[in-house]
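#struct-pred
JK: can someone run the complex with Taurodeoxycholate? inputs below
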Amino acid sequence: MCTAATYRTKDFYFGRTLDYEFSYGEEIVITPRNYEFHFRHMGQAEEHYAIIGMAHVAGDYPLYYDAINEKGIGMAGLNFVGNAVYAEVTEGKENVASFEFIPWVLRQCATMDEVRALLAKINLVGTPFAEQFPASQLHWIIADENEAITVESVADGLHVYENPVGVLTNNPPFAQQMFMLNNYIGLSPKQPENSFAKDVPLNTYSRGMGALGLPGDLSSASRFARVAFTRMNAVSGDSEAESVSQFFHILGSVDQQRGCCEVAEGKYEITIYTSCCNATRGIYYYTTYDNHRIMGVDMHAEDLDGTTLTCYPMIAEGQVSWQNGQN
Ligand SMILES: C[C@H](CCC(=O)NCCS(=O)(=O)O)[C@H]1CC[C@H]2[C@@H]3CC[C@@H]4C[C@H](O)CC[C@]4(C)[C@H]3C[C@H](O)[C@]12C
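RT: done, C-alpha cells with the ligand placed:
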C-alpha cells in the first residue's frame, strides 16, 4: 500500500509513502535537461524539463516511483492491483509504456492544461521494461499548486478524474474512494453537539470526538479517508520548516508500523520511505522507516543542463542527536 498527498502553503508540496515488504533498491535521482530519453515506442527525446524523484535505476534508465519537475508538477505511481489494465500498442497513436509515464509527462508539461492535453492523446501500454520487470499495475496522481487529478487505466479505457482532496491510496478505483467519503460527512475537527437524541444525556468526555468514526486501520480505503481528513483540515505556518514538518505529519497519519500488516508468514509491509517534495523549489525531502531525520536533496544544487543522471542513495539508518554526555 502507498499513500500520496498534496499540500499548499506559500509553496507547493507533493509526496507519498512507499509501503512494501521489500525494497527494489530505490534512490533519489535527478534527470537533467539534456539526458536522452529513449522511449520504447516514441523514439528519442533530448531537451526537456529537469526531474527529481525516487527511482530504481536500471541500465541508466530512471524508473520513477514519484517525482516533480522544475515547473512545479508532481506525479506519483501507486499500486492498483487487479484493476489496472493497459492498452495494446496501436499504430499511429502516442504509445507510452506505463514505466515511462512519469518522465513522459514531467519532461514536457509545465501546466496542468498541458498535462490534460497530453493525456487526451496518450495510449498507455503495458510494454514491460525488461523480462524481470513486468509492467506494475499502477494508478497515478498528477498535481500542481492549484489542482490534482487521478489517472486510471482500466478495462474500459483511460480515466482522468478531478481529485478534490489531493490524495491517493490504492484500491478500490478512485470514483469509489471518493464516494465512500460520503460515509464520513458528519466528521469534524470540532467537538460534536449531541445530535444523537436530545433527551439522552451525552457528553464530550474527551477531546477529538468530532472525528470519532474515522477508520484507524491500514486498509487502502481507510487510509484514503484518514489522510483526506487530515490533509483537508491541516493547518500550519507557511515557512519552509513548518510546511515540511506539517506535510510529514499528514502522511504520518497513515504510517505503517512493522507487525501490523502481515502479507506472508513473517513478512510485514512497512513504510519504507516517506517523501515531501517542495515542487516550487525543486527539493526532495524524505524520511525512512528508521531515519526520522528529514533529509533533503536540492535539484538546483546540481548542473541541470547536464546529460547524466545524478543519484543519491537514501540514508536509511537512524541517528540520535544526544543532548548530554551519552556519546
Ligand atoms: C511496489 C510499489 C508499490 C507499493 C505498494 O503499493 N504496495 C502495496 C501492495 S497492495 O496495493 O496493498 O497490494 C510500486 C510503486 C512504484 C513501482 C515501480 C515503478 C517503476 C517501475 C515500473 C515497472 O513497470 C516495474 C518496476 C518499477 C521499478 C516499479 C516496481 C514496483 O511496482 C513499485 C516500486
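RT: quick notes.
The pocket of Taurodeoxycholate is lined by residues 1-2, 18-20, 24, 56, 63, 65, 77-79, 81, 98-99, 129, 133, 135-136, 170 (CB under 6 Å).
The mean pLDDT is 97.
JK: thanks, will look after standup
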